[in-house]
């Protein structure tokens, strides 16, 4: 069993194959050692939405291609077990698996389409790169320092070579 990847296509600028991209995300998560009790959301949004998120969360003007929002807080247990809070009956089994909400990856296909043209690559290749890039951010990788950037780019290329299949 693999991680749960929930995909929502909330834009109409460029068609996306949500099943294909969910499978890529699941494959990358599995390759990175993520357990089957993990949930990730992958959202495809329009330019105004990504620009708003970019401004609100990063303080940057204008649209970007991908944003990652890792869930950094531990989840509060629900229910009562035995006295961890709440007044209702226990809804958590301490011996059972605990769901880990890893975070959200938000991709803007319109920006990706422009990037693909600028980079001389297929739109699907650019989307695949952005999805892998966003997931690696959720898993703690970054590119602020050159050494980290090189390590992240190398891992992106390995994962793309292994799991991304171009359309015929």
Account of the 3D structure:
The structure is a single chain. With 168 residues, this protein is an alpha/beta fold. It has a single domain, classed as Metalloproteases ("zincins"), catalytic domain (Collagenase (Catalytic Domain)). The protein has helices spanning 18-31, 47-58, 109-119, 123-138, 146-163; strands spanning 4-9, 38-44, 66-70, 100-107. A four-stranded mixed beta sheet has the order 1-2-4-3, with helices on both faces. Strand 1, helix 1 and strand 2 (38-44) form a beta-alpha-beta unit. The two termini are 28 Å apart. Residues 74-94 have low confidence and may be disordered.
Give the SSE map.
Layout: E1 4-9, H1 18-31, E2 38-44, H2 47-58, E3 66-70, E4 100-107, H3 109-119, H4 123-138, H5 146-163
Parallel strand pairs: 1-2, 2-4
Antiparallel strand pairs: 3-4
Helix pairs in contact: 1-4, 3-4, 4-5
């Amino acid at each position: 069993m693999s991680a749960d990847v929930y995909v929502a296509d909330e834009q109409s600028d460029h068609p996306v194959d949500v099943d294909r991209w969910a499978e890529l995300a699941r494959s990358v998560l599995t390759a990175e050692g993520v357990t089957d009790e993990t949930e990730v959301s992958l959202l495809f949004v329009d330019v105004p939405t990504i620009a708003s998120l970019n401004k609100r969360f990063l303080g940057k003007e204008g649209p970007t291609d991908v944003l990652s929002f890792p869930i950094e807080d531990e989840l509060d247990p629900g229910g009562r077990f035995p006295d961890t809070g709440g007044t209702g009956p226990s809804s958590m089994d301490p011996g059972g698996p605990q769901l880990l909400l890893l975070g959200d990856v938000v991709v803007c296909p319109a920006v990706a389409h422009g990037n693909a043209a600028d980079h001389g690559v297929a739109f699907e290749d650019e989307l695949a790169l952005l999805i892998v890039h966003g997931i690696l951010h959720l898993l703690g990788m970054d590119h602020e320092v050159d050494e980290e950037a090189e390590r992240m780019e190398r891992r992106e290329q390995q994962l793309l070579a292994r799991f991304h299949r171009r359309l015929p």
